[in-house]
Amino acid sequence: MGLFTVSCSPEEDITEIAPVETQLAEKPANLSNLELEILNLVNQHRTSLGLSQLEQLNIISNVAETHTSYMIENDKVSHDNFSQRVTLLTNNAAAKNVGENVAYGFNSAQGVVSGWLNSDSHRDIIENPNYSHFGIAIEKNTSGRNYFTQIFIEK
Amino acid sequence: MENSARTIKAKYTPKMSVVKGKLKAKKSANDKIAINTLAPNFNFINNRGETISYKALKI
Question: Which chain B residue shows the shortest CA-CA distance from A12?
């Protein structure tokens, strides 16, 4: 398996050129087994620490889906247009704080959750006591490898 | 003359300018979302083709 490397600079990070959508219709997220397993693992981890369980919101999973599709279309892991998702969730889900973990290439729920928990910065998002709701979207690219977007919000 | 004051809440309409060849959003005084605070929480960790990254924003 080859090593997939990604680099990022602050200038790249704040590139925001697409128009901001202000409304996003809420529809059933129809989560897959893999998506549900990840949400459950995150909540199990939070419970083990005495933290509240997070509630899945379709609007958050729908927003996550737009970004997972974007990453696949662009064939890269990124947080491009993060401020647009923040705006969507502020306007449509009354979000006060937003965190986003993304991943690529993991084959199992346990694998990707362990990867996030083994990273201080990712774990900080998962263990943030202020977050109350979350959503997730996973899709495979044409090579069959998974792209993940998990978004957390505080309402 | 009546002395009145009013507050106008600006919508999220970031202005764009080119910085180092890239479009960069500027923060205006009334922006509810602090664009300039987006960058700090951001990284990648690579692990044999498996990649993770995070970003967080306190609004």
Answer: B22
Q: Is there a contact between B45 and A98 if contact means CB atoms under 8 Å apart? A: no
Burial B32-48 (b: 16+ CB within 10 A, else e): ebebeebbebbebbbee
Give the residue on B whose Cα is nearest the Cα of A17: B23
> How far apart are the C-alpha atoms of B6 and A6, rounded to whole Å?
48
Give the pLDDT band (50/70/90) at residue B51.
confident
Q: What is the pTM of this model?
A: 0.71
Maximum CA extent, chain B: 72
A20: CB partners within 8 A, 6+ apart: A83, A84, A87, B12
* Complex ipTM: 0.75
Strands B50-58 and A97-104: antiparallel
